[in-house]
Each structure stands twice: as C-alpha cells, then as structure tokens.
Amino acid sequence: MTDAMTRTDRPWRHHPAGGIPGGVSDLLRTDRLVIRDWREEDAEAALAVYGDPAVARWLTPAIETVTDLRDMQKLLQRWIAESKESEAGLGHWAVTLADSGAVIGGVSLHLLREDEQDIEIGWQVAPEHWNKGYGSEAGREVIRRAFTLDIDEVFALARPANERAEAAARRLGMTWVGETDKYYDLRLNVYRIRTADLIG
Fold this sequence. Notes:
By secondary structure, this protein is an alpha+beta fold. The protein contains five helices and eight strands, in the order E-E-H-H-H-E-E-E-H-E-H-E-E. It has one domain (about 25-195): Gcn5-related N-acetyltransferase (GNAT) (Aminopeptidase, 3-Layer(aba) Sandwich), CATH 3.40.630. The strands form two sheets. Strands 1-2-3-4-5 form a five-stranded antiparallel sheet, sandwiched between helices. It has a three-stranded antiparallel sheet with strand order 6-8-7, with helices on one face. The two termini are about 30 Å apart.
C-alpha cells in the first residue's frame, strides 16, 4: 500500500482577507435538505447525532467525545466561531430536512490539522435517518461548493472497518487512493475527489 498523503501536488490556496465568508445562514439547499450554520439552540438535536454511540465510535479522536448537552454546547460554540472566522469558506454546518427544519446530521469541510494543506470532508447523520442517502446528498453539495472556492481536491478518511463511510465516499464519486497513518494516529483509508471527478 502507498501512503496517499506523502504527495505534494495538492496546493491549497487561501482566499485573501475579505474573501469568501465562513458563516452564511443557509449555505446550501437541495430538494430534501438545507445545509446551514450551526446555532447554539441546535445542541440537543446535535447531541442526538454526535452523542449516539453508533456515530461517535468512528469520530474519535478527530472529534472529541460528547457525553452530555454541556459538552455538545461547547463543541457547537467552537464550530460556530471557526466557521465565522474562516476566510476560505471552510466550516462545520448543520444538515436539516427542508420540509421540517429538523436537524438530522452535520457536515464539515476543514483543513487536516497536522498537514494544514489537505482539505477533508466529514459528514454524520443520526442513525434513525440512515439508508436514505442524506449523507451523500449533503456531502455532494458541499464538495460542489468547495470546487467554487479555489479548492483543487477534497479528501475523506475512513477506518478500514467503517464500511458505511467507505460506501458513502464511493457514492460521492471519490476514489480510494491508499492508506495512511499520518492523521489522528490511526491507519486510515484515503478517498479523494478532484474537480473533474465530480458526478451528478
């Protein structure tokens, strides 16, 4: 296996100050979903996603474990601030149902901290909403938006046992490019999509 993260042909070009703002109320819309900024009042709904063991087991250490409402409130406050402060259009956003406004998950686009060059997409959906294609739908729209922000390629990382995440990455048109232990002190499968690969 090759270490997919040793390549250096992935330039990350930041927008200048005053460029694309990080926080906008309704970031994206699809027929079924609205992707918007997190709000502090979303904490209880967010806890149903990120505090669910079926979701949380795959998130640590990339996202700290949240065990109660207070933990979730603190995490949301940080995500809200990071999204507002981003000059490059990166951030963390709530995924909501267009017809009801109910929060069913989250999606993010962020720099991998150890590298500060590669852009990772992450998406999580509450288990009660699995198998409906919501994660792929949200991920696809965020990737499309990323490619309008001067981002050349986007990565997704998945543990080898996380078959659900790997299947979702493939549905997004992402290609497996190898394994790496560069991030999070874990051996991870790496998926990548470039502008020319975007489907649908």
